[in-house]
Design brief:
Number of strands: 25
Radius of gyration: 26 Å
Mean pLDDT: 95
Strand content: 25-35%
Structural class: alpha+beta
Largest sheet: 7 strands, mixed
Bound molecules: glycyl-adenosine-5'-phosphate
Strand order of the largest sheet: 3-9-10-18-13-12-11
Number of helices: 13
Helix content: 25-40%
Distance between the termini: 35 Å
Amino acid sequence: MATEQTVMEKIVSLCKRRGFVFQSSEIYGGIGGFWDYGPLGVELKRNLKDAWWKDMVTGHDDVTPPEGLPSAYSMVGLDCSIIMHPAVWKASGHYDLFHDMLVDCRTCKARFRADQIPTLQCPHKPSKHPGEHTTCDLTEPREFNLMFKTFIGALHDPSSEAYLRPETAQGIFVNFKNVYTTARVKVPFGIAQIGKSFRNEITPRNFTFRSREFEQMEIEFFCHPDQSPAWYAYWRDRRYDWYVSLGLSSDRLRLRDHDAAELSHYSCGTADVEYAFPFLAEGEFGELEGIAHRSDFDLRSHSEGKLIRDGDGFAVERDQEGNPRHAGSGKDLSYFDEATQQRFVPHVIEPSAGADRATLAFLCEAYTEDMIPDEKGVPQGRVVLKLHPRLAPIKVAVFPLIKKDGMPEMAAEIYRDLKQQWNVFYDLKGSIGRRYRRQDESGTPFCVTVDHDSLRDGTVTVRDRDTTVQSRVPVKELISYLAERLS
Ligand code: GAP
């Protein structure tokens, strides 16, 4: 039986072979922590992001209150710049606090994240952990800020330093007032954003799971402080259910509440949606998404200056002269509720997901090896990606059985019709069995074949990827037949 490690190796190899994911700059030997999505990968990841945007933003019902919650809420979108004013990262706490502890080996010059050493291999002696071999000579752990630094303009001096954003969230906070004064939304409402984030991870690893450049899908949900516990519980459950609705099985997926020691400096309650990735040891889970109750930390930071914990709340951190250590914008980011005539700083619930991690989880979940009979009825092993139809890169493949007798022409006409609705692939190369296998490995839910009967009676066979059952369907009913099964 295949071990879990070999399953992961097979998934990585399938991703390369079928054009889902390539190593960045591969022809130059690659570059650690950066990945490129190939023709199938880009469709899969785009379908995932589109499903998130549709389910969270454009498809959201702004009028009906969710069951058991105090009111309905609005959802709107935003697309912010990657480089922002450096003061943003000082007020948010990233400049001072967004670091990992780093350890170097003076002997082999390898670099490790201090908290990962118990799980890492010594480069000289892989059966041991760093520091355990006689020749290891590790430095004391020291802080390493994860933000990528760059320079704005021609001068490369401290006054022109800027950072690539390490999260999309801050762009939403600094636009809070712009959005609520222009979009005619009332608290509670959410702002969603999908975009690239960058972290100079010390040890990027596990394929795309920990990368240096990745995409986030974040919502900042603004609500009245008194209602924030109810909204936190709502988002926690809603986000977990979203992964299940797209096909992650509940025995590999879990929702885990952080204990107090794990909470981020801003958070007064966080839960993670986690998935048992095949590269992890039995019983271990990796984070797909964090749902955090961030209180009024972010809006107050960007108004008053960088905050630090003060008892149960937060206070502006001050220098020796009593000035804010990192000043905020000085702008009033409170909200006036016309209905209650009350002014308050909204609390924030943040569901923050990684598009690359989710893509990887859906790929791992979909990867299946089974046995099916070939054309002669002999059982053959196959690899199939059982992706949810909403995520599948190609929805339908169309084949002429043979390259003559008008079959290619009829198949091309069907292809052109279906292409108006979905991403459809036309293939006339190789035996029909090989064409099915290629589509199984690509995760294509349906294959349509034009054969001799099609020319006579205007029907085609539609093969279901998961069951391999073939049904005879009249061409004029094909679009409705597929639409019912793909939706
Ligand atoms: N705004 C909150 C925030 O950024 P986070 O837990 O640091 O929270 C949110 O990141 C999500 O972004 C994670 O759950 C994960 O899916 C994704 N993510 C974070 N670092 C990543 C990395 N190095 N590579 C790939 N995805 C990452």
